[in-house]
Amino acid sequence: MFDFHKPEWLYEALPTIYTVAGIATIVNLGNTLSIVSGGLLISAGFFIWRMRRTYRHEKRSREAERRAAQRRVAERRAVELKVAEQRDAEQRDAERREAERREAERRNSQN
User: 45-79: string of b/e by CB count within 10 Å (b at 16+)?
Assistant: First the structure.
């Protein structure tokens, strides 16, 4: 029901608006109810700001960890590929040497 889109500028400004409104309420009205209401507005502004800051910090941390994990996977794949290429090259060399050895034996047996 109250889930409507807020423009980004308004969304980002709400904690400040709550805090300023709370201070204005306390200063301008000065009675007990206004002090309590102003204190609640200031608290709401602070807590909303803190929750957003915490969430954004955790989100950056998660994204950094995800990127680091992707880098580790890419590095591991590069190492595995290099090892596989070296193993293939060694196998080709062994096959070539074996073919040369057989060819030399065939020539020796013909002589």
Answer: beeeeeeeeeeeeeeeeeeeeeeeeeeeeeeeeee
